[in-house]
């Protein structure tokens, strides 16, 4: 059935067995990097729309990594329009989609297509993961667990071994989220505190609309 196929896809993408996902989740898999175990205060860099707009305009090669937060905020339309504007001025802009991003596999692909994003600009994790290291700027919108570096760097993490998008390998990373809150896996994300990451906190749709308007004005000057 379609439900069984979706379950298989999700389990494979998370590197987990079906019984583990159903009965154990992530909580029983590891001891590292849980929010409740945080013993030290980590600092992060916060940015604003004007600075991010300037960063985007200065970048030639951009990858956008959307997650569940984009779906909830319905931010795909202003985001798609922003990408259209950037491509008119010669920017290379692509989307990186994790197999389990969104409510179910394929949801983000559908939402982006509905908003007018070209299929040629949307790439699956296996197709684009090696490209982050040669990317000027990554714009993360509403993603958390699917970009968590602890999956690779912390063998004690509950998500250790889960394939993730290696956004932190880019020159600069901008993360758009409502807050620094945890994702479904309930673990901290070290990417938020890396030196090449800046946090733009706010509603994804509102932020994308503000970026779109700012970029339109700046690029036409």
Automatic annotation (TrEMBL):
Keywords: Membrane, NAD, NADP, Translocase, Transmembrane, Transmembrane helix. Residues 1-213 form the NADP transhydrogenase beta-like domain. It is a multi-pass membrane protein. It comes from the Eukaryota. One of its GO terms (cellular component) is mitochondrial inner membrane. Coiled coil: none annotated. Its EC number is 7.1.1.1. One of its GO terms (biological process) is NADPH regeneration. One of its GO terms (molecular function) is proton-translocating NAD(P)+ transhydrogenase activity. It comes from Cuerna arida. It catalyses: NAD(+) + NADPH + H(+)(in) = NADH + NADP(+) + H(+)(out). InterPro entries: DHS-like_NAD/FAD-binding_dom (IPR029035), PNTB-like (IPR034300). This is proton-translocating NAD(P)(+) transhydrogenase. Its main location: membrane. It is found in: Membrane.
